[in-house]
Specification:
The chain has eleven helices and eleven strands. By secondary structure, it is an alpha/beta fold. Residues 18, 21, 25, 37, 66, 68, 71, 87-89, 92, 113-115, 131-134, 137 line the site of S-adenosylmethionine (SAM).
Length: 263
Amino acid sequence: MNAKAEAFTNNPEDTKSSEYYQEQYEQSFAEKWDELINWEARAQSEGRFFIDLLKERGKTKILDVAAGTGFHSIRLIEEGFDVTTVDGSPEMLAQAFRNGRNRGHILSTIQADWRSLNKSVDGKYDAVICLGNSFTHLFSERARRKTLAEFYAALRHDGILILDQRNYDRILDEGFSTKHKYYYAGKDVSAEPESISDELTRFKYTFPDGSVHYLNMFPLRKDYTRRLMTEVGFQYIETYGDFKEESPDGEKPDFYIHVAEKQ
Ligand code: SAM
């Protein structure tokens, strides 16, 4: 781990900044991310949820704003969608491009921070997707509002935003437990919170080679995220739990997926 990253992990309280994703997703972590997120297992657990949702609504022009190493961009390209791949981290974007090329695709990539997205991204999209628990990397309400406003502005008049998040309500209210079924499907990688507070959740990722990486996250409560979306102008928001409508038996999901409609 380099000195900068080490300093970062030693001072969690100093790192509640929306700028920190740049350091959190440094080169070594960009490479590890694909180990963490086993693509095959993830594709299986996610199924065709996002693909079917977009197809049913006739959305074809997609802006993947938190592309990471490209999992969703590539899956959607392979399903015939017209995808633009965005991330604020050059390391993650470079890894996404390599992953695309290895599968025979040339990704259309743009490096942009969400808070000034429309400075770099032209045109209007049918759907903006912000997946993989990414919105959690913003540590001020101002940054969250600005980001949602930028996502809103990048959409056509009838566009949709699909944004997912961990079920932090459960983590904050009951402590952490997970079925480890969704997303973090790399079976040899452990992901567990090291500290939990209303302002900062700090996850520790331990990889099979013994290396350890930390990610700081803002614990978004479900209704808070929904409220912010409404306040920036989204008209209707549907929230799914673990790729299903809210479970009737009251089982609490690991992840929520919000689908917010502009009109
Ligand atoms: N969506 C991918 C996935 O599910 O595998 C990657 C998710 S990763 C948790 C979060 C991504 O969001 C990182 O690649 C990070 O660089 C990006 N990110 C975080 N904050 C950002 C910001 N303010 N602007 C642009 N990208 C940001």
